[in-house]
Amino acid sequence: MRLTLVSLFIGLFILTSCKNSASSINTETAIKEKPTGYQGQQPSPIVPTVNKPVQKQWKGIWSFDSDSTFFTNDFDGARLNGVAADGNDHYTVWITAENTPINVSPWYAFKVWTENPRDITIKLSYQDSRSRYYPKISTDGIHFKSLDSTNFKAINPGEGEFGIKAVPELAELTLSIGKNPIWVSAQELYTSKRVKSWIDSLSTKPFISNYEIGKTTEKRPMHLMEINDSSLTKKALMIISRQHPPEVTGFIAMKSFIETISSDTEQAKNFREKHTVFVVPLMNPDGADNGHWRHNMGGIDLNRDWQNFNQPETKSVRDFLNKKSTDGYEFVFGADFHSTWDDIYYPLDTTVTGEKGKIVFDWIDSISDRLPQKKSNVKASDKLDPTMVSRTYFFVKHQMPAIVFELGDNTPRPFLKEKGKVAAEELMRLLLETE
Ligand SMILES: [Zn+2]
User: Fold this and answer.
1) How much distance in Å is there from the Cα of 300 to the middle of ligand 1?
2) Are 295 and 54 in contact (CB under 8 A)?
3) How far is 75 from 96, CA to CA, in rounded Å?
């Protein structure tokens, strides 16, 4: 016993001194190798996912200056919870969340117009949050561009590079308004209707069909696309996106990913002969149309519900996957597209997935090789219990190598599309090679 204790002490001493000397020798290298880029979020705490009350936003038109200047949130995807005229063509708008506590993802979208064309200034203020999303402007609600930086003023700018503390407390924007409404929105507006029209346009291809796999609390359909050139294949992929409504950049990359798999290239045709791709492009249509910051109409973060399945959206995908497994499908890959402070990958560590999970890392490496202009960090998780998030559930229940694919809020849109395309091409190549 004593001997063991002594050797333990000696062991500890050696370990400590090694550590010390190593750190003193390597200080210079350590500084040089300081991690760069977004390092990712901490593991998510376990939270209950039974329904919580949601405050529906009041919808209507705010009118000012003797009924000559108007603001409205009366459209799908809008969020505007209050407006005040402060005089001198200055307005303050308030943006609040559907319920709390909530992740800081302060979505906003509203329209503004006037009978007296002029420049006005709008201050964006938020409930327990800061100004995360840089304003996008549109004159038709379809085509958006970033507000010109000369018309943007950050109030009480943040500190650091990433996260809510790094963005301004408030933002002030100057707009030239006239009789035609201008849309002001946190990101491009992809409502359930717009997503469905994309699904329908792609479904004109003979090898793509779409159908409902369930309904949300507000009875919106959960649409699923099935991409498949052959009825013989039983190898399948499961792709989902937008559990969190404001995460439009993830959606844009997913869209390009799916369009590439559905394209006319030899690779895509060959791939579709051997694989079926199932896609739920909009996991949270209630949240998207109600302009939610993050939750569904049950007031719940859907990506915490893949353990207990209290919500209709997660239940419908769970039941769909179970049905397909029973039908004999083998799931060879799964991806869940999201957005955050910068591009990052959240795979499962091969210490828990073994040989099966290696393809995810090969895939990340080959995407990175082809897109050296923007480095993305990789933060692997080695926790399989509780499943809680989609990626972990996909692996634990259906043995699919899976990933949370995150794109930055401000990643340039052409790059999002390129990354979605490259990701699809590299995945098709790897999956075809593993046959
Ligand atoms: Zn997300």
Assistant:
1) 13
2) yes
3) 17
